[in-house]
Amino acid sequence: MTLDAALRASEVLLALAFLQSSAEHMFGPLRQKALMAPRCVGAGLLLVGVVPHLALLALVLHALVMLHRFDGPYNGGSDRMGLLVLFGLTLAAWVPAAAPFALGYVAVQLVLSYFISGKVKLQNPDWRSGTALRDVFAFSAYPVAENLRALARHPQLLRAASWAVIALEVFFPLALIHQGTLFAALIVTMLFHIANACLFGLNRFVWAWAAAYPSLIWLQGAAFG
Amino acid sequence: MRLLLLVLPILLPAWRFFKTVEASPRIEWSAGQGWQPLFPPPVRLGLGHMLARLFWNPQRNDALFMVSCAERIDDTPTDHSVAEIRARVRRVAGCTGAPLRFRVIFVWDQNGAPAHEVAYLSDPFPP
Q1: Which residues of B10-30 are buried (b: 16+ CB within 10 A; e: fewer)?
Q2: Which of B51, B53, B55 sits opposite A201 (nearest CB)?
C-alpha cells in the first residue's frame, strides 16, 4: 500500500468512525445536536474527499472543543485512538514532508496499543488465572446484559479466553514480519474488537481501530516489503 | 494549560486496558423513595441486537460515559462530572416534583459474593 493510498483509506475509515459516533449524539438533547452537527459536516467532507485539508483542521478544532466540553474523551480509549489518527492525518495533510512520520507514529501506537495491553495482563496473576476476566463478567459495569454475568461461572473457559487475549496482544508485533501474517492478525484483532463490542458495548473501538489499520499496512510494506 | 493536559494523553497514550479489574462503579438515583439504577443493562440481549449495536449504540455509550464520570468523582469530585450525572438523572426521572439525588456505589467481589460501598452521595437537586 502506498503512502497516499494509506492516508486516503485512513481518512475514509476515520470519517465513517466520526459519522457513526456523531450520529448517535444527533438524536440526543438539542445542545448535543448543536455540538455534533459541525463534526458531521467535517466528517462528511472528509469522506467524499472535498477540501480534506480544511475538513481535517476543522475536525481537530472541534475535537479540542469536545475535549473541553466533556472534560476529557467522551469514550475513553476509542476516542483517544480516533483523535490520534485525526492528529496524524492532519499533520500529514498540512505538512506533506512529515506524512511518513505522522502515519508511522500512528502505526507504532497501534502496535503498542495491543502489545502494552497484553504485557500488563501477562504481568497480572489475576489475568493469567482467568480471575480478572471472571471479575469483569461477575461485577463490572461492562457486560451489555445481565445474563452475560453467567459466564463468570465458567472458570476454565475464561482462563482459556484470558490466555487467548494475552497471546493475541503480546505476539501482535510479530505479525509485521510478513504481509500475509499482518492481514491475518488484523482480521483476528478486528474479530476481537467486534466481540468486545457485542459483549461489552464497546462499538466505537471497532471503528477507531479500523481507521488506524491502513497506517500499519503501509508501514509493514515500507519496512519489510 | 488545561487543554494541553487533555491532549497529551492522546498524543502519548498509555494503552493499559484492563490492567487490573478493580471495584466497579454504579450510579443510582432517588426521588425520595428508594434507589434506582441509572441506565441499567437489559436482562437479555440477542446476538442480532449485539451486532446492530456496532452501528447504533447511543444509550450504551452514554452509560459508559457515566461510568467515566463516576470514576472521575471517585478520583477527584468535579463540578463537571456531577453536572453530567445530574443532567441524566433529570432526564430519566422526568417531572417527579420531588428533589432528586444520586449516589455512586462501588461493587467488588468479596470471597465470591458481591460487596458494595457508597463512594459519593450528591446533595438534593431540583428535578
Answers
A1: beebebebbbebebbbbbbbb
A2: B53
